[in-house]
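User: Predict the full complex structure for these chains.
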Amino acid sequence: MAEADAQRFRGIEAATGQPIEPDYPISTVADVDAACAAATAAFDAYRETDAEARAAFLEAIGEEIMALGDALLDRAARESGLPLARLTGERGRTVGQLKLFAQVVRDGLWRQVRIDPAMPDRQPLPRADLRMRMVPLGPVAVFGASNFPLAFSTAGGDTAAALAAGCPVVVKGHPAHPGTDAMVAGAIRAAAQRTGMPDGVFGHVAGPGNALGTALVQDPRIAAVGFTGSRAGGLALVRLAQARDVPIPVYAEMSSVNPVVVMPAALAARGAALGTAFVGSLTMGAGQFCTNPGLVLAVEGDGIDAFEAAAAEALGGHAPQPMLTGGIRAAYAEGTAALAGNAAVRELACGQAGDGVASETARLFVTDAAAVRSDPALTEEVFGASSLIVRCRDLDELAAILDTVEGQLTATILLDEADHEPARRLVPILERKAGRVLANGWPTGVEVAPAMVHGGPFPATSDGRSTSVGTLAIDRFLRPVCYQDLPELLLPPELRDGAAGPRLVDGKPA
Amino acid sequence: MAEADAQRFRGIEAATGQPIEPDYPISTVADVDAACAAATAAFDAYRETDAEARAAFLEAIGEEIMALGDALLDRAARESGLPLARLTGERGRTVGQLKLFAQVVRDGLWRQVRIDPAMPDRQPLPRADLRMRMVPLGPVAVFGASNFPLAFSTAGGDTAAALAAGCPVVVKGHPAHPGTDAMVAGAIRAAAQRTGMPDGVFGHVAGPGNALGTALVQDPRIAAVGFTGSRAGGLALVRLAQARDVPIPVYAEMSSVNPVVVMPAALAARGAALGTAFVGSLTMGAGQFCTNPGLVLAVEGDGIDAFEAAAAEALGGHAPQPMLTGGIRAAYAEGTAALAGNAAVRELACGQAGDGVASETARLFVTDAAAVRSDPALTEEVFGASSLIVRCRDLDELAAILDTVEGQLTATILLDEADHEPARRLVPILERKAGRVLANGWPTGVEVAPAMVHGGPFPATSDGRSTSVGTLAIDRFLRPVCYQDLPELLLPPELRDGAAGPRLVDGKPA
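Assistant: Here is the predicted structure of the two-chain assembly.
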């Protein structure tokens, strides 16, 4: 559809709830179809670009994003309500992520090349020449996230990983930040053009509502989906993907309360300091992190009162921050009201009052293990700066509660030297529950690095075998192919005799 | 339930359709529950067994299988109708597979250890110490396959890979070979006991019907499913797994026609020899291989008549072999009858007549590309020794047909030197369609090796990101966990400073 004829929509200023100029065209289902057709047409050419060309494309995206300058940060700040300092850091993370994936592409380990040379004289049967590499799945649909308008959105983690893997990407921009989305989409297109990538390597659709996303996931040319958002949204995409004639993987990062265990010696030694630090992690970015600490498990004893008192004091001084969208604010209000209205739960403290229009009040609740046992829904995520402290009688009770929580992105243990030995029994539980286990830190803050895992068992994600942050994320968009006895001319270059790059030969690094 | 009180069932002799002594107890849903409980209880202990202990367990399974001697082969031959020579080879493959996974466990690459050392002085923020390893998913349900009573059944590929990964296994034995299944289950139990593995590391249920398998996949303690069998059976398990409160991965290897492209120069030079060799691959094991060549694409021209004539002659002399089960025989009869009754399809040849009770007749059909275009269902799998030759006008038409076939386990290209250049355009299509691309060989015969991929896009499997043969199969039962700033005592041994074993440090092999 010609852009002039399109229906249009606007972003909303998070701090005021008012629309922001300019308006943007609403994509149509025909636009989805065209983007998927172009992505498919680009696939064979793009997936065989050499490492240097593909790395240069990823780096060029970062450069084009930087070239947008302060206008991008200003726009993102207005649309998200997140502070400029945070968005400056997030831009650095976004660009750094693209550079890191460029390095991954160059290193070549992601191809997982394996070569088992022929054994023509083996008895009773000869062995064929077998060579394996990872190949990209195909065009990937990426859904931008509202809470990271740069690092997990249009040119965010999933886009970077999919492009690095050799998959064309079609982004459905998040309607909470259409301006940010449009600017970043333009940067990617400019980078693709500048580095000579095939048309269709990057497609982009935007607009409110679910029709575009539904059409995108149902399109038979889409081979995988990356999503970060609500549990309801993620599960809806999973259902759509499973109902296709050819089902496809959906990597939906959905919900997590990120349990924090405070061990007795640490609590006794530094309960107050931990309480203050806890509220710092809880309220960062209005608590709108997937890794926000929404559940604290502590044994009643020395230090727990100091922990709670310090947390209450820190929270009481906390100024309200705008939330990302009206929908998120409403869900937060509903979730915290349910906790406040639960007879088994006591409100320990709250932050300063929000304006009721665009910002909400941080809230902290306390209950005991018995209440959680009888109502496990108490431990479900309330997205935003709300957390629940669960007082446990002893470590046995704490371990039992921990064993009942759902799958998580992170699980944290705060401990001192004397806690190490008693904490050992908790590690297997934490490991079964979460994609990342932390000691003496806070789960907010996710390093983009080779060893990072930002994933975890359902319902933290729809596929706990994967990560959405860090270089391992490239694996989610790959599948293995074995080439048996192929003549040199038909073999992919990296599988030919004498090709450079890391490989296993007969299963051993060579 | 006490075994004495159980309902009982018998195996059926494939060659005669008659029941075989003795009878075996039919497991109950309560037995499934008990096996899952025991597997869960064993999980934490089993997954932390050291590499040497776990490898010794895998090797002991192989030894106990060998100790069953000829009685195992005789029983498997009676139950499956497969010849003793084939089953002797299959036993070797089964034991070799267990030994290979023992080596994989010892090598340690499967852990995918990554270490990103702390950077306490990094600006603007320090980096935490990040360490990653793969951990097992949890108890795995394995469904035995009828067509490989040893190598893909009770102690087959999925069992070996899951046990190697650190997952307890609960096998649902295939009811077509209850005696073989019971003997091998006993061997695994003996090996577990002899090597001191925790009780519950291996569980086993058996019986006809779907109730046991349904209960197993629905059990909340099962974390993944391995299956080899029919498309209907695999999809039913996938649906059960997706409908759980916590969905789990299902690795179902389902259906494949394994297209074989015969290139013009090869056809002209050696059409007759290729036709004879094709029938050898087609009729092996009564065609009851997942990798059976069920679709041949060839350009009309020199050699195609010789190819067809030689294939027809070879097939005409083919003696009928028993099929695995009555159900498979009935489905084969139905599928071949549909092809024979299709006006656009001509029957080129058939093998000698079967007895109509326990054996079937190999059949070969011919059609043209236009017929396949108007009825793509012609290219769907008929499990058994049936194949369809599709005559194409030229390579363009052949490529277009190839591009419409469903996902496959294998895709083969038969070619001579002069075909190399024109074949290049087909490789990307073959690669998008299949998990393994072969040149100048036959897809039957799947090497158990590091570079093997026995998998492929849907509907060849339910998850094309994985393989069920070869050492890469261990990955399907793993997920990554990151450990951030954990004190030494709480770190898994292989992640501690100075631990032996392969690893990436800051993303680079160290």
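Chain A is about 40% helix and 20% strand.
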